[in-house]
Amino acid sequence: MSKKKQFVLRIDPDKYEDLEKWAADEFRSINGQLEWIIDRALKQAGRSKNKKTEDDS
Length: 57
What we know:
By secondary structure, the protein is mainly alpha-helical. The chain has helices spanning about 15-25, 30-45. The chain has a domain at about 15-45.
C-alpha cells in the first residue's frame, strides 16, 4: 500500500456535519468520503492520472 500524504483541513462545522452524515450513509469514514469526492472531481475534470470512468468507486 502506498504512503498517503497528510494535511490539515479547516472546514465549516455545518459542512462537516453534512459530510459526516453523507459518509455514514455510504458506510465510509469521513476521510474515505473526502478521498472519494476528490477522486471523482479529478476524474470529471480530466485531471486524474487514473483514467477509470467517473462511476468507479
